[in-house]
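Intended use. Records like the one below are meant for learning the mapping from a protein sequence to its folded structure. Do not use them to infer anything beyond what is encoded.
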Amino acid sequence: MKANYVLFWVVAVFCYIAAAVYTYWAVIDEYSVGTVEWVGTVGLVLCGVLASLIAFYVQRVYKAQGGELPEDRLDASIDDGEAEQGFFSPWSWWPVMLAAGAALAFLGLAVGVWIAAIGGAVVLVSLVGWVYEYHRGYFGH
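Structure written out for the chain above:
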């Protein structure tokens, strides 16, 4: 994780320097006559802000852990990072239905509201089905 937050700090500094150079270059340009081109300047500054936020968050998480991850150690083996990541249902069809409902909802935004309503209903049914998948039937608790 240390390499991650250092990399994001490097990207943030690069974006801030690029914003300054971009602004200076726009001001001295013979066609713009001393005006700043705000879209590029604001875009580069906001890219720097985003990289700074991510770097700050990852750095705080790294320090709050109190230890290094296996990826940060040179003497780590593959077995050191094999902790359980969560519980996933490999045979579940609900994520596919949820993706189809989201696709219908976004298609409805472009084509017609009635399609978005159908997509929203499919999304709600899929979310309920996915959440309560293990509360009934063969796998019920």
